[in-house]
Amino acid sequence: MKINDVILKTVTRIVVFIILTFGVELFLSGHNNPGGGFIGGLVLSSAFVLLYLVNDIETVRKGIPFDFKKIAAIGVFLAVGSGVGSVLFGENFLTQAFGHFDLPIFGVTELSTVVLFEAGVALTVVGVVVTIILTISEDV
Amino acid sequence: MIETMLMVSLVLFSITISIAIIRIILGPSMPDRVLALDMIGVNLIATIAVVSIILKTKAFLEVILILGILSFIGTIAFSKAIERGVIVERKRDG
């Protein structure tokens, strides 16, 4: 039976970009405002879940050709690597550093190594959540 | 004056959510329950907006966005499960 879902597909094409933008905004606003890697990753993965709901697995895999298990592994590696990096400088494990730099366009910006750790957390959350959703929805 | 109106609206929203919960428990068919869940989501969003007006804060606006996204995806998933019986398809045949 063929079902007509033009409205759903058209709405999703726009809404997915809104959700992805909001996820990135949540990821970047962490540390000073509500936000951070974990819930940013959750919102990003909800955008991917919406794509998988509206289209099917084969179509989305053609457009996003990543293995989400590998993305989770890369995220854990990044998070642990940002902790080990502080050991190389003689500090304790997971010691973070920040500083103010004068960048060409942005002016004086606060850059911090916490962003690397949070990026690892976000990648891990995206990979794990999408893998869980795809695994429990398997109907074979 | 405006404080009283906001408080009254909060009470009415909670009554609405209780009625929707009754509909989820009793609901004769599955679409009734899905509609009641969607209604709870919308009422929660309105409640959070009223609470953030009362507390005079902007901290809850992201909560509103996330609740809207999640209730949207939840409604789509429920209605797709009712209509087709499968939520995420492997290969669409049409």
From TrEMBL, chain A:
Q: Which family does it belong to?
A: Belongs to the CPA3 antiporters (TC 2.A.63) subunit B family.
Respond yes or no to whether keyword Secreted is given for this record: no
Taxonomic lineage from the root: Bacteria, Bacillati, Bacillota, Bacilli, Bacillales
| KW Transmembrane helix (keyword) present | yes
TM region positions: 12-30, 36-54, 74-94, 114-136
For membrane topology, the record states: Multi-pass membrane protein
Main site of residence? membrane
Query: Which keywords annotate this record?
Result: Cell membrane, Membrane, Transmembrane, Transmembrane helix
Domain Na+/H+ antiporter MnhB subunit-related protein as annotated: residue spans: 7-131
Q: What is this protein called?
A: Na(+)/H(+) antiporter subunit B
* Annotated compartments: Cell membrane
The family database entries (PANTHER family) matched by this protein are listed as: NA(+)/H(+) ANTIPORTER SUBUNIT B, NA(+)_H(+) ANTIPORTER SUBUNIT B
Automatic annotation (TrEMBL), chain B:
The record's principal subcellular location, in a coarse class, is membrane
Which parts of the chain span the membrane according to its record? 6-26, 35-55, 61-82
Organism domain of life: Bacteria
Question: Its topology with respect to the membrane?
Answer: Multi-pass membrane protein
Tell me which UniProt keywords the record has, alphabetically. Antiport, Cell membrane, Ion transport, Membrane, Transmembrane, Transmembrane helix, Transport
The record's annotation in Pfam families points to: MrpF_PhaF
Mind telling me which InterPro entries this protein's record contains? MrpF/PhaF-like
Q: Where in the cell is it found?
A: Cell membrane
Q: Does the keyword NADP apply?
A: no
What does the sequence similarity comment in the record state about its family?
Belongs to the CPA3 antiporters (TC 2.A.63) subunit F family.
Protein name, UniProt field: Na(+)/H(+) antiporter subunit F1
What species does this protein belong to?
A: Sporosarcina highlanderae
